[in-house]
Amino acid sequence: MDEFDESAYVPEERFFAKLKRKSAENPFMLGALGLTLVAMGNMTRQLLKGDKTGFNHSQRYRVMAQIFAIGVFAGGMA
């Protein structure tokens, strides 16, 4: 039977401590998330205004931002 190794025990992190640590590990992820949220907000605004062309452009920006976010995430994993 294996004994419990106290040196390997990592206590549970609080949310903001974990966010700070993860941001330090991959600093571009928060920026990519911000770009995606701005694009989605702009897309919603264009939809409510009834601007079909602006909405279409905003969807393209959102897709580009999400691709950038996925690339940043994948790059941080490597």
UniProtKB/TrEMBL annotation:
It is found in: Mitochondrion. Residues 1-78 form the HIG1 domain. Keywords: Membrane, Transmembrane, Transmembrane helix. The keyword Transmembrane applies. Its main location: mitochondrion. Pfam families: HIG_1_N. It comes from the Eukaryota. GO terms for cellular component: mitochondrion. This is HIG1 domain-containing protein. It comes from Rhizophlyctis rosea.
